[in-house]
Amino acid sequence: MELKPEDLEVQRLGACRIQSPISGAYFVDDGDQVVLHSNPLKLQGMLEKDGKLLAMEQAGPREKIYFDPSKLKCGIVTCGGLCPGLNDVIRAVVLSLYHNYKVRTVFGFPYGYEGLTYRFGHTPVELDPAAVSRIHEYGGTILGSSRGNQDVSEMVDTMDRMNLGMLFAVGGDGTLRGARDIAEEIQRRGLKISVIGIPKTIDNDISYVERSFGFETAVSEAVESIDAAHTEAKGARNGIGLVKLMGRESGFIAVFAALARSDVNICLIPEVPFSMEKLLANVRARLQNRGHAVIVVAEGAGQELLGDTNERDASGNVKFKDIGLFLKDRINAYFKGVGMDATLKYIDPSYTIRSVPANAYDSAFCLLLGQSAVHAGMAGRTNMVVGYWMNTFTHVPIPLAVSARKKVDPDGWVWSSVLTSTGQPKDMR
Fold first, then answer.
1. Over the stretch 200-236, which tens digit does the pLDDT of each residue have?
2. What DSSP letter does each residue of 86-135 carry, written as one string?
C-alpha cells in the first residue's frame, strides 16, 4: 500500500475551546509534525511528487483542550500478554490525569476488554494517586489482562452507561484492532468518547512505532540468559547453549540480544528461513573450530519445519509449536547419529522476561508515553495510538498502525550487523 498524507491524519472529536489547566508547559501546536523519513532524497521525492511531506502529528500538551476536566470520567484497560512497564503506564496515565488536568474519576477495568463486558461481571476499580503510588516497582499489571475479542456494542454500552469520555487501551496489535472497532462504533452512535491506544508489545512489532515500552527491558533480561548459555557451552567439551526468546513474527528481541553479546554464533528469526541441514552443518563446523556454540532462536522461527497445528488462541493467533524443544531434540539426535559427543543446555526465559518490572530507561519511557496519551485524549484525539518516531512522541491513526506488522528487514543494516557479529552465513536454507 502506497502511503498518502491523509493516511496519517488523526481523527478529532471536535474543536478545542477550553483553556488547558497546565501551567508553565511547553505547548505543542497542532501544526507541529514529525516527518516520516530523514533521508533528504526521499523528502525531495515527496515534494516533487505532490508538494507534501509524509509526516505524523507531534504529541504533547495543547494550549486548548476539548474535554472539561471537572466533568470528565476516564477508563483504562490492559490487554494481551504481560510486558515490563504495564504498571508504569497505568501509573503515568492516572498521575497525569489527576495532577496535570485535575481529572478526579479514573476507572481501571479488570482483565482487559472483559472488564467492559457485562457477562463477566468484573467490577471496575477507581484509580487515584494513592492506588498507583508504588505499582511501578512490580511486574505485570494491577488490572489483570486477557486475550480474545469481546462484543464491541456491549463494550460501548458500558462506556456510555458510565458516562466515560475517554478510554485508554494498552495493548498490542489485537488490542489496537479492538480499540479501532470501539472508536468506529462510538462514531456510528454519535458519541463524544475518545479512544487512545498505548502500544504494548514486547516484540516491538507495531508499524510506524520505532520502539514500544518493555522492549529494552526484555532485551536486557534476554542477555542474561545468553550469558548463562555461553558459560554452560564453554564449560563442556563440544558444549552448545540454546536460548529461545520471544518473537512470534518479528525477531527484534533475538536480534538486539544477539548484538548486545558477541558470544552468539547463530541467530534464528522468523523473517529469515533456514534448513536443518544447513543449521546442523554450521553448528558442527563451529564445534570443530572453536569447541562450543551459542544459538539464539526467536519463538516464531522455523515454524515451517514443524507443521501447522491448525489451532488458534483466544486472540485468533496461530498456536506455534515449540521451536526450542524441536531444535534441542534434532541437534542432540544429529550429534548422536554422527558419533560426536556434544552437550546441549536449553534455556527458555520467555515468561521470566515478560513478567519482570521495567528497567529505569523503560520506566521513564512509560512515563512519557502515558503523559502523551493523556495529552492526546484531552485534546480530543481519538482512534489513534501514541507512537515514537525520530526520537519524538507522535500521534498515529490506529488503522495505519495495524495495517501491517513491523518486521526485521533481512536485507537491512540491522540484520547485516547480526551476520557480521555471529559469523553465520547469510543464507542457511
1. 988 999 999 999 999 999 999 999 999 999 999 999 9
2. HHHHHHHHHHIIIIIT---EEEEPTTGGGGG-GGG-PPPEE--TTTTTTG
Reported residue count of the chain is: 429
Closest CA to 204 of 143, 245, 243, 241: 245
Indicate the domain borders of the chain: 5-212+358-401, 219-355
Q: Are strands 392-397 and 55-58 parallel, antiparallel or unpaired?
A: antiparallel
> For 98-102, which contacts have Cβ atoms below 8 Å and span 24 or more sequence positions?
98/128, 98/129, 99/129, 100/21, 100/22, 100/61, 100/371, 100/374, 101/20, 101/21, 101/22, 101/65, 101/69, 101/72, 101/374, 101/378, 102/21, 102/69, 102/70
Topology of domain 219-355, CATH: Rossmann fold (3.40.50)
Maximal CA-CA distance, the chain: 78
CA dihedral angle for residue 195, residue 201, residue 206, residue 211, rounded to 10 degrees:
100
Q: Same CATH topology for 5-212+358-401 and 219-355? A: yes
**What positions carry a catalytic annotation?**
203
CATH topology of domain 5-212+358-401: Rossmann fold (3.40.50)
User: How far are the Cα atoms of 7, 263, 278, 422 from residue 419, in angstroms, in the given order?
Assistant: 35, 13, 15, 5
Report DSSP state, residue 59: P
pLDDT at residue 313, rounded to an integer: 64
pLDDT band at 380 (very low <50, low <70, confident <90, very high): very high
User: pLDDT digits over 134-185, tens only?
Assistant: 999 999 999 999 988 899 999 999 999 999 999 999 999 999 999 999 999 9
- In terms of Cα–Cα distance, which of 340, 236, 359 is closest to 291? 236
- What is the four-CA torsion angle of 331, 336, 340, 341, rounded to 10 degrees? 80
Q: What are phi and psi of 104, to 5 degrees?
A: -110, -5
- For 281-327, write each residue's pLDDT tens digit: 999 999 999 999 999 999 999 999 987 766 766 656 677 889 999 99
Helix, strand, coil % over all residues of the chain, rounded to 5 = 40, 20, 40
